[in-house]
Amino acid sequence: xxxxxxxxxxxxxxxxKLSFEALTDEQLFQLYVKENTVAPMIADLFDVSVRQxxxxxxxxxxxxxxxxxxxxxxxxxxxx
Length: 80
Hints:
Layout: H1 3-13, H2 25-34, H3 39-45, H4 50-58, H5 64-79
Helix pairs in contact: 3-4
């Protein structure tokens, strides 16, 4: 379920200008990895290009999906 995405979308539809710069890394991780929101949808929320979104994602040092896979593998290895 896209909880954060739907909250942000509602705010945008109500007329709020969402700031891409104010989006935290945790929120970006939530949107992109946990909620599996595709880049064009996130970019549209913040009125930025998909390229700008991709650059921000790359600035984290790795793609968020790679990070999520690593985190999940570590969690699974600890559980076994």
